[in-house]
Structures are given as C-alpha cells and as structure tokens.
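Can't paste images in this forum, so I'm doing it all in text. The chain is below; anyone willing to post the predicted structure tokens underneath?
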Amino acid sequence: MPKPLKWVLIAIVCLIVVVLVAVMIAPMVINFEKYKPAIETEASNAMGRRVVLGGKIVPSVFPWVGLALSDVSIQNPSGFSEKNFISVGLFEVRIKLLPLLTGTYEIKRFVIKSPHIVLETSNTGKSNLDGLGEAAKSATAAGAKSSTPQESAKKTGLPIKSLKAEEFAITDGRFLIVDQEAGTKQEIKDVGLILTDLSMDQPIGIDFNAIANGHPIRVKGTAGPLGTPIGQKPIQLDIVAVLLKKIDARIQGQIENVLEAPRFDAGIQVSPFSLRKALEEANIALPFSTADPQVLDRIALDLTVSGQPDRVAISDGKLTLDDSRITFQGRGQTWSKPDLQLSAELDRIDLDRYLPPPSEKKSSKEDKARTPTPETAETDYAPLRKLVLDAQLKAGRIKAKNMIVEDIMLKATARDGIIRIDPLGMALYDGHLAAKSTVNVQSRKPMSKATVTLAGVQSAPLIKDLLDKEMIQGMMSAALDLQFSGDTADTIRRTLSGNGKLQFKDGAIIGLDLDGMVRNVQSAFGLAEKSSEKPRTDFSELVVQFIADNGVTTLEVANLVSPLLRVAASGSADLAQETLNLRIDPKFVGTLKGQGDAKERSGVMVPVNVGGTFEKPKFKPDLKALLEQPLPDKEALKKAIPTEKELKQDLEKKGMELLKGLTLPDRKKD
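Text version of the structure:
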C-alpha cells in the first residue's frame, strides 16, 4: 500500500473515532436544561399555547439516539375549566443511530406514559382547539407554495425502507370531553395501546383497552404487513372489539393506498348478543321502556363496507332484531350535501313490543286543561334541503298500535328540499291502501300534500284493533286529497284543505239504534220489537263526502240508508276551533224488511241541529221545521205502518236468522 494512502486511511479512522467519542460525550457535557426556556418559547409561539417542559431533558446519542421528556404540557387559554389541553407524564424514544443513514428504523423503545387530552367548549361556545397552531400552519402553507408540483410528488410516501420496534406502548391515557355550555362531561380513562411485532414485513399485533364513562372497551387483532414502501400494497385488517364485555364485533378486510387516497373494503360481523343483559351487567339503564320486557334479547349484524373517505357503500347487510330479520344495502357520498341511496326488506315486526307500556293512570280533562302547551323551537330544515335521497322499503308484516298491515311497499325520494313518498301501498283487513305524499321544505314552513285511497277494507276489525272500540261495521272505501302547511298540530288543523269521500257498504253503526227510536212510534200500535242486544243501526250504505278549506270542513254529501230510516246530514266543522255546525235530517221509511227494501214510503222528518264542540256536542231538535211539515194523511200512515203480511214475513225471516246462530250438540252414536 502506498504510504500516502495509508496515512489518509489512518486520518479517516481517527476522524471517525473522534466523532463517535464526541457524540457519546456531548450529552454528558452539554447542559440541555440551559436551553429549556428557549425551547418552551419557540414551541409556545408555534402552538399558540403556553408549552411547559416541567421535567428534565434526557438525551442519548450512541448507540441509540434518543430523547426522554417528562411532565410536558400544552396549556389551555383562559376561560376554560381544565388547565391543560395536553399533558404527558413521560415521553421516551430510542432509535438506533447508524441504520438511520440507510432509511432503516430500529426502535428500541417508544413509550408514552400518562398522556391526557382535554377537548373543552366554554360557556360562550368557544373551543380550546380554536387558534391552535396557527403560526405553524402558516409556515407550512408558505413552504407548500414555494415547492413545485414535481417536488411535492417526490415527497409522497414515507422514506422508510425498514421498520422494527422492540417496545411500543402508550399507558394510563385519559381523554376528556367537557361542554360547559351543555353541562356535560365525557371521560375515557385507563387508555392503553401496545403494538407487538412492529415491522413492515409481518402483521402487527394490536392490543387496545380503555374505560369509557365507566364501561370497558377492548380491541385486539392484527394489521399489516405494511409493505415496503408503506402504503403501496393493501394492508390487511383482522380486529375484534369487545364492548360492555358482551358485544363482540369483528372487522376483516383491507385498506389500499393508505397514504394518498385511502380505499377500504371490510366485512363487519357483530355476534348475537342481548342488549338488555349487556346494559344490566354494566349498570346502564335502558334509555326507554318497552311493553315487552323480553325484547332486545337477540341482536346480530353482518355487512360489508367499502369506499373512500368521501363515499361509502354498504352491501349484503343483515340485521337480526329478536324475531325480525332485515336485509339492506345502500351508499352515501358528498357528506356536505348528503347523497344517500338505501334499500331494505323486513320480514315481520311487532312494534307494539318495543313501544312504551300503556300508562295505568289516565290523565283527566282537568289535567289536560292545566297542562300548558310546550313552546317548541322552529325546526331547521336546512339539512333536508341539502339531502339527496332514493330509498325503498318492503315489509311482509308490521303490527303497530295493535293494527296489522301486510305487503308494505314504500319508495321515498328527496331532491332540492322536496321529499316525495310515491308509492306507498299495503294490504290491510281484506283491503288495500294506496297513497302518495309530498313535503316541500324549501321555505321556513313545510308545505305538504297527500293522496290516500282505500278499497275493500273491513272497518270493524280495523277500528277494533286500532282503537279497541266497536263503532262501525261494513266494507269501507275512501278517497282523500289533502294539503296543509306547517309542522305542528294546530297549524295543520288551521291550514287543512282539500276533499274526501268515505263510503261504507252493508254495515252498521254500533252503539246507536236509530231503528229503535222509530219503533217507539210504532209501539203506539203494538208493533214494536224488544231486544236486549247492543244498540246498533244497520245500513246498506253510508256515504260522507266533504271539502276542507283552511281548517273548515263542509259536508257536501252525507247520507245513511237503513231499513227504517234515510238520514241526510249537512253543515260544517271548524277543525281549528273544534266547533260543530251540523244539521241531521232523518226520514222514517217504515219497513222491517231490512236493507233490501226499495219501496217508497211516506215519512215524518224530525230535523236535529248539532252544535257545541268536538268534546261536548249539543243536540237540539228543530221543532220549527218539524211543525212546518204537513201532517201525514190516513193513507200515508198506512204506508208508514207495515201490513200484517209484511210483519209475518219479517218475523219468519228473523226467526230463521236466529235459528242459524244456534249450535246443536252432535248426538253420540250408540
């Protein structure tokens, strides 16, 4: 070896030794405490908050370059109840020095102890995040402007060729959310995170635990491999979360292009669990009461979620809720102006089981009168004006308020503040309902329209199930076309307009015996029938046709055709004032033949005026109109009274109908 080269090599080796010795000695001879005030000042200026380094700065250089800080805090501005925004008991990191030169990160230790984070909103609505790090953001923005697109492209990704960590842990963490304005405080404490097998070429073990408002959370699983370079290959996920010790949720999937434009695709499975039991064991009261104490005993969920941060798609969704099964799918995007598409199909559900139990104490009229109407704030419809919706729901059978409907089909759309339900169809009580409606929320007060058609519905079981009353029987059909504005009951009553028609065929009014009233006249001739049955008025047809104009409903046609009577009604009802102004004109027909009678007969009109309120109607006979009617002559009276032959035929018919209702016991064979 030439002598000059030899001396050059010796000089290089000596230089390296000197540098290494200097690196090892420097931390021992340099007083870092001297620079703490300067560090605090610079950090405070960058954060826009006071930064305090309470403990010592303990550096290390060789063979592990590292730093240990203790009692570090970033304080809140004045006006907040909590002194610190962030505080850390201990922060320590140690990385092997020489491998850093080749982009290899060998981490000996990365530990954060007692990190505490507080998010707080003051009484004035100000957040402790307001203004945080504004100086640093400005500097970053200025640097970004000075760089060219080509330079920015080169910076994409992390310059890490290899990564390995022996210890990575966060312990005794605390996260506090305080809202002075609302008077609420939410706390997550005992936060711990341990990562094992931290590298780029194998799955990383994740073990996270915390206590949220006194309730345990545990997340465990794997993520990775991260790949080299990070983010160029899909990162696999297999994570299990345990909530309230009873609810197990598993996420399996992957994240692609994690550093630039993340895309995810994962399956989520929530194992069957009892929400009621989970809450009971956690000493959490169910936020609502249910009529059936056995509901919410079995819940399970299975779905696939995919998408990007600005759009999400859900497919193959399956939800189990006790005895009900729901399949669903959908998508959502553009969260600032939500664009949602949903589709769901339900087999059956009994909603009465989930509703609150009926109150044993019924409020009296006096209690209702003393209860003031609560003042409600004006509803903000701005979110609905932004909503874009296309939803469809199918259901096999739904029971609600004891009413049963089947084969439900509903489609709802929303565009530019106009929400449409078209169509809405369902089968109920041997008939069918078809409806469509529109709600326009483009202005402060919503404008609503609805069209409803009923055909072939058996009214008796419908009213019995819905109201638990026997009011009317017969096959019902209806056609309603209504519109109103507002979103409160009072406003809707005042603005209700439109028209409608109700028709009942071959039925009866239960609780009112108009025929019996007529028979009181016949009793003078000894022809009245006596019955112990519940009062009722049979009819062949009952038709009510009305128009409504700003809460005032006027009867256009109101006719009842019964065996002994023809009844017509006219007048109006004010829905806003809840007052009545009606007139009822009954006409005695004079037959006991039943609903099939078509014989014209003379009669006596006894008009009745109905006034008062919905709660206390007042009935008054119109005596003046009665006296103005001509008295029936002898022939008219004969027509009004059934003949002996008619009476005999009618009695024979009623006797046969009575015998049909009797059930004779079967004779036993000898």
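The longest helix spans residues 3-29. The chain has a mean pLDDT of 80.
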